[in-house]
Amino acid sequence: MKLGIKKDRGKAAGWGTNRVETGPMRGAPLPAPWRARLENILITEEQLARRVKMLAREIQRDFRGRELVVVSVLNGTVMFLADLLRHLDLPLRLDFIGVSSYGGSTESGELVFTKDVRVDVKGRDVLLVDDILDTGQTLSRVRSRLQSLSPRGIKSCVLLDKTSQRRVPVSVDYVGFAIPNVFVVGYGMDFDEQYRNLPFIGVLKPKPGGIAPPGAAASI
Ligand code: IMP
Ligand code: MG
């Protein structure tokens, strides 16, 4: 399988996105223990490291001199957030917000807040961090929740954007990679709470005899 990354500088949107396309991949073989469960590596450790550093540079430039509060959506952002934060050379406060989806699928399931923010965001600039922007429901709900706390402003940052899947319009200011509609795991992201520890992002194999991995079991 070849991994193709096309530069797609989204000038109008104000950010640069790497569009990742699946295809025959060269040079990033799947480690043996994962071959039975994963289709291929979509984004390597090196590509992640490079892109996250670039995102941090953009964010640092935009938030310099502001009272920054980073609010990260649990649990999928764990690795992305840790890597992003260590490159942010800015004074900031950090908090987490928890959201879970119930009721069948990430697309139709009802969203429930499992943890609210505790840091005071009133009058401060919020950077909202999430792992994947899919239908847009999660980011939109979390944004509204934060907006009700009267911050000075909110910008959002996602590592991955499944651009073709959007159902709820939501603005996003920083995007790591635009990806096709495949179910991904690793680098913090899970299927049924597994695979979060992978240092790369892989595409999950469909269950034998079944359809694609159900978004249903993906916990946020
Ligand atoms: P949305 O509300 O449809 O935008 O879904 C966003 C959330 O669904 C993400 O924060 C993830 O937790 C989860 N999700 C969507 N696609 C995937 C995937 O491919 N792998 C793992 N989790 C996913
Ligand atoms: Mg999530």
Order of helices and strands: EEEHEHEEEHEEEE
Distance between the termini: 29 Å
- Whole-angstrom Rg: 17 Å
The chain-level structural class is: alpha/beta
For the record, the CATH class is: Alpha Beta
Bound molecules: inosinic acid, magnesium ion
Please give the order of strands in the largest beta sheet.
1-2-9-8-7-4-5-6
Number of helices: 3
- CATH-defined architecture: 3-Layer(aba) Sandwich
The proportion of residues forming helix, as a percent range, comes to 10-25%
Number of strands: 11
Share in β-strands: 25-35%
Give the CATH topology: Rossmann fold
Average pLDDT rating: 87
Largest sheet: 8 strands, mixed
Q: Report the principal-axis shape.
A: globular
Structurally, how many domains make up the residues? 1
Description:
This protein is an alpha/beta fold and 220 residues long. The chain has a single domain (4-217), classed as Rossmann fold. The chain has three helices and eleven strands, in the order βββαβαβββαββββ. The protein has helices spanning 45-63, 78-86, 137-147, and strands at 4-10, 15-21, 38-43, 68-74, 92-102, 110-115, 125-133, 153-161, 174-178, 184-185, 201-204. The protein has an eight-stranded mixed beta sheet, with helices on both faces. The protein has a three-stranded antiparallel beta sheet with strand order 3-11-10. The longest helix is centred in the N-terminal third of the chain and has 19 residues, at 45-63. The chain is globular. The structure holds inosinic acid (IMP) and magnesium ion.
